[in-house]
What we know:
The chain is an all-alpha fold. The protein has 6 helices and no strands. α2 (10-41) runs antiparallel to α6 (122-151).
Amino acid sequence: MSASSMAHSPHASSRHLARRLTAGVAGGIAGGLVFGLLMAMMGMLPMVASMVGSDSAVVGFGIHLVISVLIGWGLTVPFARLLTGYGKAALIGLAYGSLWWVLGPLLIMPAMLGMPVLMIDAGALWSLLGHLIYGVTLALVAVGVLRSAHER
């Protein structure tokens, strides 16, 4: 079997998908932990928990980490081929974090909680900072995972 046909085999495809999923989990957790610490310092985790009817910071942190992994997969599964170097990944991470800042705390979460959408105040700006940090961390860790898996 030629090298090109092996690269397109079902086994190779499942390895590529597993690598992308692993990169999303690792990057999502890393970014989620860093961003989660910022959220904890700002007292934002109970608001995250309120999406499931709780006011527990621990529940909020758990929800935040699950969301972080899902959003990590949203970057690494379809776009892993763009994550070729650390500089490029950092820029992609900034853009991805910005996108999720608009989608998450400015649209989805306030809509779920019956609050006004697209409200930008000091808290929203801190959230932007957290989302940028999350996006960069996600992308940089994902590049590391993708490179290490590729080198094996």
